[in-house]
Amino acid sequence: MPSRVSLSYLQDESPNELRDEGAAATLPAQLDLAVSFLRLDRLSELLPFLSSTLPEGGAVVEDGRQVAQQSAQKLLQALQGINPRGEIYDLRATWQTGDDTRLQSYARFKNLISNAWNDVPPVSDAAGQLWLKDGAGQVLIERAVLAVKLPDLFRDPLPLDYLSGQIAWQTDADGWHLMARNLRAGNQDIRTRVTLDLQKTADHPSPFISLVGRFSDADGSRVSRYLPAGILGEHTVDWLDYAIKGGHVSTGGVILHGRLSDFPYDAGNGHFEVRFQVQDALLDYAQGWPPISGIGAEVLFRGRAMEINAERGRIFQSDIRWAKVAIEDMQAEPVVVTVRGDVDGATQEKLDYLIQSPPLRQKFGQHLDILRVAGRSLLSLDLALPIQKMEDTRVSGTLQLDDNALSVPPLGEVLSHTRGTLHFSSDGLQAEAMTADLLGQPVVIDILHTANGQTRFHATGRFDAVDLSRRYLPQVSDLLQGGSEWDVSLDVPMGDDSQAQQATVLRVKSSMLGVVARLPSPLRKGADDLLPLKLRVNFPPAQEPVLRLAYGGFLSGIFEFGEGGPMGLHRGELRFSTDAAVLPEQPGLRVVGWLDTFSLDDWGSILGSGDGKGAAWLLSTDLAVREAEVFGQKLHNLKLKVVPEEWYWQAQVESQELSGLLRIPRGDVHRPLVAELDYCRLDSLNFTADPETTMDPRSLPPLKVRIGDLRYKQLRFGGLQLETVPVHNGLKIKQLLLTPRKTRLSASGGWFVRGSGEQYSKFDIQVESKNIDRTLKAFGYLDSIRGGEGTIKLSLQWPGSPALPDESMELVRGHASMDLRKGQLLDVDPGAGRLFGLLSLQTLPRRLLLDFSDVFREGFRFDRIRGDFLIEEGDAYTSNLYMVGPAARVDITGRTGLVAKDYDQLVTVTPKVSETLPLIGALALTPQIGAAILFVQKIMEPQINKATQTRYNITGPWTAPNVVKLK
User: Fold this and answer.
1) Average pLDDT over residues 617-638
2) Per the omega criterion (within 30 degrees of 0), is the bond before 358 cis?
3) Model-level pTM?
4) Could you tell me which of 448, 289, 265 has the C-alpha nearest to residue 362?
């Protein structure tokens, strides 16, 4: 683009006489310059040349022109430093020298670029207009990009992506004055609009500033760049840098009025205020404390003070009703940040706040981290945080609880429906007359400081034994009645570091007066019995809790919580003694002591079989019981010792009725349960089980049992050997052997489960006897048969377990056979046993003696008894039972009712008269005649025997059968 340039220079020539008289006066000169277009980069090429043509600033110049030349030199130096580039339009400049130097200029500029020089910031892409007149100037900025350097206020230059507005200045001998009007500036962080007056006078070293600004759309995460660090305290700036994170500033304003040296205007000689609205901000007001997030607040800086007034926000997920964060003096030593407010939300979050916030955690938070709280509450908080000495933090406040529940793992829910006001401070917690339900029982709670610096949660009230047991031990609730007073306290160390390793302690005390317990020994008590109960739980820091109990002076226990046992217990001891229980070193439960009486049957019926975890948790037992009851059997002077081995519990049992060793597998059903007993003398056993809780035989361990002398109800069964093995569908009996005197009973079979889940038992039994008399006596059948020997075989099956009740005999089906030899059948009560109910022979002797007294006068002797039976639906059927004796043969067919205990049989008696009476007659004659008669007898024997047969129909009950002789 072509440029038109017009340049004129004019200097006045005065007469010599005037010049001689006024030699000290500067001759006036005037330079007029007009340029339509000028590229400043071309001008910058001329600046070194122009600078070299001027004399040094300190040189003496004739005619008084030194002042003008010095000004020109400074201007050239500034132009060289700034090195302006861009385009100048319509430049008009007039420079007049002399005694009254004047400079007047106007120009438009576009695409102006300059370098930083001294305090002048770099400029780029500037456009606008410039007016200069003597010591004053004005610039109208249409646009510009620059970085503002105000080192007395801001730590770093403030980058401006755009700038527009008017800036004017004026200098004179009294100082200078800078003005900015309608100044708009901004970047990605903020948008501002500022009016500024900055004036420096010769009579005061500090400038006077008057700044009014508005800003909007500010990014809170970039707030550090815009902090007036020059007039804030160092520690305040550090805190603001750390604390304010994120957020969006919608609108705000700033006022700064007064001399900069008088900040913060404590004497009322100025005013400083920054006020803005922020949304979604995060305030991390102290390291280690939970921050306030989601803040909607007004932030105010005024003089030395700062305030953040939050209308909303969150600590964790709890809502802030209001909050005020303030610094009263930003230049104080130390700077103290105060935080006040109300927080509404989950109480657990308030507890987490206490736990996570130093110094609250240092005081007592670490002792509360085991607590779990359900419900909502209102927290009123008051904090004073010296940001250079956080250890001097002061904290106080209140917690309004409404229907809260408190749980203490592993104890579970301890408090419910908690209501009241809890006061807290750095010294601890306090409360009066709070109400709650403790383990479901209404109590009044006070919180106070103890003499040793602990905080005590103290609850008093009365508990109902039935209600309490229904919640935690429902098995015994029907056996309890009444209630009693109790006293519960929880001591929490909340002092200095010397208490850091102390345990939190829970104590429960009750006299138990008023409670009726219809429990088995040793826990039975009446309402007036004084049997004090004491519980104590220690919660050591970073360790598992420990529970101690004492009851009635004869029972104590100690238990450590942890994984591995029922109810979250890890190891413990239960001691029946006046001595205190001692915690074992190994995991599990140890039971020791002495009891007068104990009934496993009574306690088992109350507590049930459980899930097996209690037995698996057992570590060892060392008990002495004067009289114990186990499965209906009385054991006297029992001593029981159980010790663990690698794979077994080894139990040594000694009593009048039982002695020997048991080896019980530990958690592995594939290892056998071993019993090696010297003797076992039982009077009664009761294995009756609830059908709904019948165990699964597939879950049972294998058995290996050896008993040297087995007796039951005065019956001597001799030695016993039993061995079972698990199979895929149940438990198989590999060996069952009983050896009473002259007898051997062996059996096989087992307890099985069909595919449908139905259980059944199946057994094959064989009894071999060399003396049936003794065998029967061993099994309780007295005087049924005298002498004899033989074999009885049974093959039976029934649904369910092997413990078949008598009333379920109709379920048995199978076969039985007997083969007995050389004995004598006696006339006995058939109720003596089902085995001889099968024979029905004992109903005949008196009848037969009437009919065949000459045949049976020597008794009912037999050479052989043999027969087979079909057993089903409670009846035994036979078609081939017979007895052969020296005097007769007896055949039996029909039914014997094993359940109904009745008969429906046909008995045929065939005397052997062909071998007795004829022989007597023959001997009365000559031997020859006797031989002839005997010969004829042998030929006619079948007809003779048939002719002498007698039949009987036997019906009716075993105890009084109806015997009818058939014709």
Assistant:
1) 88
2) no
3) 0.58
4) 289
